[in-house]
Design a protein that fits this description.
Length: 394
């Protein structure tokens, strides 16, 4: 392994050993660690070290000049089960304690034998690798993982960054990495599991993931949103989400009221126009009675999608409803109604209704590929602005 650059710099003065493997030996710069991390800035100071800047003993670290002939002023080793029980930095023990595991092989030539860590220890080692990469402006190393695996790694990294006090350094590369490698699945998960993704976004302070998840949650049914309230309280975002939900409901009710008054420009003698208007209002009332629309029952948005859809299936369904309504109205004289008489007027009345719905069809989230299994198809016209994010500076 070369010593001219990351992870082993020839002019580095800090050695960090994450495991017994030679691949987990990092020779880095104290000024880089101190610049980005208050914890390292304190631990590398003369005051922490008792006035002797040439040695360092922190949770099992050694103070003599590194390994393989490289002289370092400070050497850190990752410990897990040999941390002093009375150590005041208990959080450090959980997040980052340094050790060479006893069960790991000492044969450095065999990487697989050297890394026999349990899942918890392995996650901590990997999180440290990613953190060190980010401190040197390199991409974290979980792009090859599935999203669930990457999500667990990112949460571990966020916990570690919080301990070291370098969250702001980690947030941007993590958010960019998610968007570049996992955008499609993140968008899909925000639709189907918005509360889980909100929790994830709050943990890593990801602006775009929070906006996506929040917008999708605001547009869900009353049942779904009600079930999420307890977790929203735990996350400390209940007030924000309730405010957005109230605005969403208000606009939806106003839209339903406008739809109930929609009509075509009926010309003199065009009874078909009046019939089409009555048929539309009957269609709307029938759907609203089923809990669709502003009642926000599951599947509430289907009525809006039916009104706006330009598919042949939707157009045929609307025309069939109008024809059945007309036949009911003219039951005494069914021969008066012909299938093609009111068709143009039905199309016009639904086009007028679709124009009213246009503002509600705007997306405050990133467009995603349609999913046939997506039955709720919630509306997403109320979003979260930058200044409304929980971590935004007031």
């Amino acid at each position: 392994m070369g010593t001219s650059g990351f992870p082993q710099w020839s002019d580095g003065d800090v050695t960090i050993q994450l495991s017994s493997s030679p691949f987990d030996k990092y020779i880095v710069h104290s000024y880089v660690l101190s610049l980005h991390s208050p914890w390292f800035k304190a631990s590398l100071s003369e005051r922490w070290n008792g006035g002797d800047a040439s040695s360092k003993t922190v949770f099992g670290s050694s103070d003599t000049g590194g390994r393989d002939g490289h002289k370092s002023d400070w050497v850190y080793e990752l410990h897990f089960d040999k941390c002093p029980e009375r150590q005041p930095q208990q959080r450090w023990q959980q997040a980052a304690c340094f050790i060479f595991p006893e069960e790991a092989s000492r044969q450095r030539s065999n990487f697989k034998a050297a890394i026999k860590l349990d899942d918890e220890r392995l996650q901590s080692v990997r999180a440290h690798r990613d953190l060190l990469r980010i401190l040197y402006h390199l991409a974290p190393g979980f792009s090859h993982e599935s999203f669930d695996e990457a999500k667990a790694s990112i949460l571990q990294l966020a916990t570690l960054a919080d301990f070291y006090g370098c969250e702001s350094i980690v947030e941007l590369p993590v958010a960019s990495h998610l968007r570049f490698h996992y955008q499609a699945i993140v968008l899909e998960t925000c639709v189907h599991h918005p509360v889980d993704m909100l929790e994830f976004a709050v943990a890593i302070k990801s602006d775009w993931v929070f906006k996506e998840a929040a917008t999708n949650l605001v547009g869900r049914s009353n049942r779904f949103f009600g079930n999420a309230k307890e977790r929203l309280l735990e996350l400390g975002i209940a007030d924000l989400m309730n405010t957005k939900r109230a605005r969403f409901c208000e606009r939806l009710r106003a839209c339903d009221a406008r739809l109930s008054r929609v009509s075509t420009e009926a010309l003199h003698g065009k009874w078909q126009a009046a019939l089409a208007t009555s048929a539309f209002r009957h269609f709307l009332c029938d759907r609203l009675k089923q809990g669709q629309g502003s009642d926000l029952c599951p599947g509430y948005a289907n009525v809006y999608h039916m009104i706006c859809s330009s598919s042949l299936e939707a157009r045929d369904c609307r025309r069939q409803h109008a024809l059945l309504f007309a036949q009911t109205m003219f039951r005494a004289a069914p021969h008066v109604i012909k299938a093609d008489d009111s068709t143009p007027w039905v199309d016009k009345i639904f086009a007028s209704a679709a124009a009213i719905l246009e503002p509600l069809r705007s997306r405050s989230v990133t467009a995603r590929a349609p999913d046939r299994s997506d039955k709720h198809r919630a509306l997403t016209f109320v979003g979260v602005a930058e200044h409304e994010l929980p971590w935004a500076k007031k």
